[in-house]
User: Which sequence fits this backbone?
């Protein structure tokens, strides 16, 4: 998946906005002002393609044990975030979409019920 496909996929989710709250190179995707995905754009240009995604703590550990391309979240809470490297064929586009969906759902499930209902 290239950066344009990733960008379009994240923005296609209901209630998602994009932001650059940290610097001009870190693209952040948010749902209702809560982060669910971060991408360092300068790394994509340099060939080090990765994305930080929120993850259930237990599943995060399983993923890290099963995939060399999934590590604890870089500059994030290691308990709740993974950094997914996309430089190998280990992470398919469909699996990446599953991980993005999971991250989005993790954030949405913690939103107030009224907001969750508006998103469904």
Assistant:
């Amino acid at each position: 998946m290239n950066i344009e496909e990733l960008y379009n996929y994240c923005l296609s989710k209901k209630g998602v906005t994009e932001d650059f709250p940290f610097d001009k190179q870190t693209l952040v995707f948010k749902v209702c002002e809560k982060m669910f995905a971060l991408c360092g754009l300068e790394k994509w240009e340099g060939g080090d393609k990765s994305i930080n995604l929120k993850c259930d703590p237990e599943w995060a550990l399983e993923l890290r044990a099963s995939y060399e391309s999934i590590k604890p979240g870089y500059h994030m809470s290691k308990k709740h975030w993974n950094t997914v490297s996309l430089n190998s064929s280990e992470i398919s586009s469909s699996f990446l979409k599953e991980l993005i969906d999971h991250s989005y759902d993790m954030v949405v499930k913690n939103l107030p019920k009224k907001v969750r209902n508006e998103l469904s």
Q: What stands out?
A: The chain has a mean pLDDT of 93.
